[in-house]
């Protein structure tokens, strides 16, 4: 089976949501997977080196420049498959799914849907390609209905399919973004906390991740400005390359630690904190999402402070009592997270956000190719 990705650079997310999945199929299901990665020419050699270093059974191909020219990559995929046997493919995102659907040597297509693509383009990516923005709803519809099976990252994403496209099928599984299998449960890292200059009496909040539009960083800083004014024991560890000059940073310079570390070092920094921050504006993109940082926070023993309507996770926080909603938190009484509570967070991560928990769902995916009779013609779109 193939796992095809399109325009995804190598990163911590790629490692945990693509490469780790490929390894899981091999190690736990004894299914051979080949990763086929279409990557930007700009970073081709760097991405190729990293992808092949972390997963040897990979073919890394250069993308034809320009997202609006995505169809021109069809020839490269067809050429790759000329001398190969017919096989199924897991396809990450809309564009890899559409390319696979048009390839006659691919017998079954499993649409690995990471979010609401039409909404994401219109809400956060409209400046990148007006042509794609005009077409994305129809492209997503073709990917959804033309696939033989689907992977959704949340229940809310399936509801989006039903509401937006009238999808009423049952050929899907729900697998949230899970942690990298190499991440282990860690003990409290008092040494790291001391290195950061955080006192035992202080409450350390952490944000880890990019500053992309959907992260709603300006709104987060506005909320924290009020929280820091109310509770003088609060500190923030910002593991991000965000260079925002929000006045939050000038008001509390001694209580904010800004740094960027390599992905492998992130867990020890998370483990030094008391709470993980996850704020998202109430948009369709965020309502169907499955941020991997949620799972990583819990695995580090951190309750999560989260906004309303973030995928399935806002409800999860209230049901499992594993954090606070921004809309209901009392910052004045927020205290450090105790050892017993940290252990409970870690157990929640083990029970809900490890790939082994979803082995039956992955087994269904592996069985799709065997259940579908070989096709002799190019797939017809519904």
Structure description:
- With about 375 residues, the chain is an alpha/beta fold.
- The chain has 2 domains: about 1-180 and about 355-370, 3-Layer(aba) Sandwich (Rossmann fold); about 190-355, Glycogen Phosphorylase B (Rossmann fold, 3-Layer(aba) Sandwich), CATH 3.40.50.2000.
- The protein has 16 helices and 13 strands.
- Strands 3-2-1-4-5-6-7 form a 7-stranded parallel beta sheet, sandwiched between helices. Strands 10-9-8-11-12-13 form a 6-stranded parallel beta sheet, covered by helices on one side.
- Strand 8, helix 9 and strand 9 (about 235-240) form a beta-alpha-beta unit.
- The protein is globular.
- The two termini are about 25 Å apart.
- The model is unreliable at about 375-380 (pLDDT under 50).
Q: What is the CATH domain class of the largest domain?
A: Alpha Beta
Q: Report low-confidence residues grouped into runs of 5 or more.
A: 374-382
Q: Supply the helix-strand structural class.
A: alpha/beta
Work out the helix count.
16
Which strand order does the major sheet show? 3-2-1-4-5-6-7
Radius of gyration: 22 Å
Global outline: globular
Query: What percent strand?
Result: 15-25%
Mean pLDDT: 91
Q: Which architecture of the largest domain would the CATH scheme give at its second level?
A: 3-Layer(aba) Sandwich
Distance between the termini: 24 Å
How many distinct folded domains? 2
The CATH superfamily of the largest domain is identified as Glycogen Phosphorylase B
Order of helices and strands: EHEHEHEHEHHEHEHEHEHEHEHHEHEHH
Oligomer: single chain
